[in-house]
Amino acid sequence: MTPLVKPRSLFLGLTLLCLLAIWLSLALGPVSLPLFDTLRAALRMLGLPLAPDGLEQAELILGQIRLPRTLLGLAVGGVLALSGVAMQGLFRNPLADPGLVGVSSGAALGAAVAIVGGSLFGGLPEWFGPYLLSACAFLGGLGVTALVYRLGRRNGQTNVATMLLAGIALTALASSAVGLFTYLADDATLRTLTFWNLGSLNGASYARLWPLLIISTGVALWLPRRAKALNALLLGESEAGHLGLDVERLKRELVFCTALGVGAAVAAAGMIGFVGLVVPHLVRLLAGPDHRVLLPASVLAGASLLLLADLVARLALAPAELPIGIVTAFIGAPFFLYLLLRGRA
Amino acid sequence: MRLKTRVAVLCVGLLASLQVLAADLPQRWVSAGGALSEWVSALGGESKLVGVDTTSQHPQSLQALPSIGYQRSLSAEGILSLRPDILIGTEEMGPPTVIAQVKSAKVRVELFSAQPDLPTLEKNVTHLGQLLGAQAQATQLLERYQQQLKAQQSRVAKLQAQHEAPGVLVLIGHAGGKPLIAGKDTAADWLLQQAGGHNLATHTGYKPFSVESLAGLDPEVLVFADRALSGEAAKAALFKENPILQASRAAKAGRVLELDPTLLVGGLGPRLPAAVQRLADGFYPAKGNP
């Protein structure tokens, strides 16, 4: 199958799309700022010596609300799409998504423990309180993934099929535990839990942003280096082995990067479905299955898609806000169907 | 003619001085709490509200205001776009980063406790009165509120001395289907106690119940709060969806009371005394009642 778009024009297009998404994300919001003010405030924040008169509000909204939110969207969208590629490569199955190794359900379990059982952690220092949810979600995702990986190993070999099934079993187990916490929760915590499960970029702050930015940059720099290895893995595990590839190490890296990346993304923004599954597909439909293109292009596409979805999330019902998980699925799923059907015709 | 002008000037002057007085008070209000919005309205501040959250359903005119979403998942920019002077809410309001962002935009943020007890309520309403410039009204409203509740209490105490408290179940449902039963530590339970009912449910919070245990408890009075239907339609739906309830003493004696579900959200609201009285009337029917 020849790609619909040449890699160079794909990267050019996606870069432009991403820049456009960033600009829109900074320029639009429920508070309508004059375009000129936004521009001046942005330039001032970049260090240009402009007069600060009348820019107070613009700077506050741009610097404290929209910029952290945009950065969060970029990091979350990019890392989710990237993990999607890694999982689809690992399982050699285009239906794979980061949830398969248990990272999402583990994070959901961690979040449920933090939200419902939060009062039980009485002895925690006060400064840690706001971070409890994120920390629990991150550790939950990492823990369940580690368990899935461990269950898939036998005699120093990782059996991908066993891992897949272990992932399904542990996901079911974790969901039932979440269900139990849901039953125990009172009304207010129940709603918090529900909203968390739909994801949101709302309330982004720099303090929460740094860990995610560091992790996602690391993952985004590391995984594309393994593009050739992922291409070899497409042929099959033993074939990849015969090509001189350390397959065990590759699997370990893929699982670890996914757990780390998705864990951090989910900890910062809650559960955002669909991006990890569909963005790699979209890119593959456009540019073919070569991981050297697929990996970096998915980062750009995932980040752009999430920023645009967030724009809808914050503008559609302003001054209220939609959870972004609803938007990603609502826009993305029909678009995906369209691409599938068009490809078949 | 001359006199008219003078009167007009005087009026304008008066108005202006009122404006000066009022200038220190916040003029554009956003409220993120059902009971709080209701109190603001009761204190005559409804015209100052420019946005409310999704729990503010009462009075109905509030539903026409821009909605800022659910109190626990507010959006900073959304709130700021309403250009408010003040944001009021309970300690439930969040997420915390959003509240901090709103504060840093120089919007006054006032937190009120949602604790369902009278001292808290007194503090909240007095504070709201000050912020609205309606202190006198606040005192008056509070006095009446407390009088009504106290009158209820003594009435219920008297009735309970004569009759045994009836066993009650509170069912909260959606068009009758799969109702949740209100247990301890809920606003519904508090209401029930104030009205002199005995809650047959012993769990805490709102929980689903098996049909068998419903039949086993055999309540004397059923109280239902339906989010989708009201009146006879809700009652009919309740019995249609849960036929076992028809065999209960409450259904046979026709002692089935309706409760507005918006009363159960977000602390003590101004409509509670009336609701307590209605429930008490149902729990201890007319015979020999004062």
UniProtKB/TrEMBL annotation, chain A:
GO terms for cellular component: plasma membrane. Gene3D superfamilies: ABC transporter involved in vitamin B12 uptake, BtuC. InterPro entries: ABC_BtuC-like (IPR037294), ABC_transptr_permease_BtuC (IPR000522). The keyword Transmembrane applies. Keywords: Cell membrane, Membrane, Transmembrane, Transmembrane helix, Transport. SUPFAM superfamilies: ABC transporter involved in vitamin B12 uptake, BtuC. The chain crosses the membrane at residues 71-91, 100-122, 128-149, 161-185, 205-223, 254-279, 299-317, 324-341. GO terms for biological process: siderophore-iron import into cell. Pfam families: FecCD. It is a multi-pass membrane protein. PANTHER family: ABC TRANSPORTER PERMEASE PROTEIN MJ0876-RELATED, FERRIC ENTEROBACTIN TRANSPORT SYSTEM PERMEASE PROTEIN. Belongs to the binding-protein-dependent transport system permease family. FecCD subfamily. This is ABC transporter permease. It comes from Pseudomonas koreensis. The lineage of its organism: Bacteria, Pseudomonadati, Pseudomonadota, Gammaproteobacteria, Pseudomonadales.
